[in-house]
Amino acid sequence: MQRRTHPRPTLLRKGRRKQAASKIPAESVELRPTDDSEEYQPPAKHTHRKLKDGDSNSADDSL
């Protein structure tokens, strides 16, 4: 009984969560790309250094 009841509620909950979550970001994506907003919101310096090592190196070289 537990095995059947366990997967059922989890699947329903996950499906509902995914639908609601997908609806919210979908609107934000249309207004402004989530990738850019996500990178800009958090510490840009840390994200840029971790994601783009070449950028930080090129900046140092140019300086």
Task: List strands and helices in order, with pairings.
Blueprint: H1 2-5, H2 7-31, H3 34-40, H4 44-51, H5 53-62
Structure commentary:
The protein has 63 residues and is mainly alpha-helical. It folds into 2 domains: 1-31; 34-63, no CATH class. Helices cover 86% and strands 0% of the residues. The chain has 5 helices and no strands. The longest helix is centred in the N-terminal third of the chain and has 25 residues, at 7-31. 0% of the residues are buried. The model has no long low-confidence stretch (mean pLDDT 55).
Specify the number of helices: 5
Helical residues, percent: over 70%
Strand content: under 5%
The biggest sheet, with number of strands, parallel, antiparallel or mixed sense and barrel status, is:
none
Mean pLDDT: 55
Element order: H for helix, E for strand: HHHHH
Q: From the helix content, strand content and strand pairing, which structural class follows?
A: mainly alpha
Q: Between the first and last Cα atoms, what is the distance in angstroms? A: 67 Å
Region (Disordered): 1-63
Biased composition (Basic residues): 1-20
Can I get a quick summary?
With 63 residues, this protein is an all-alpha fold. 86% of the residues lie in helices and 0% in strands.
Defining traits:
5 helices, elongated, 63 residues, 86% helix, 2 domains, mainly alpha, single chain
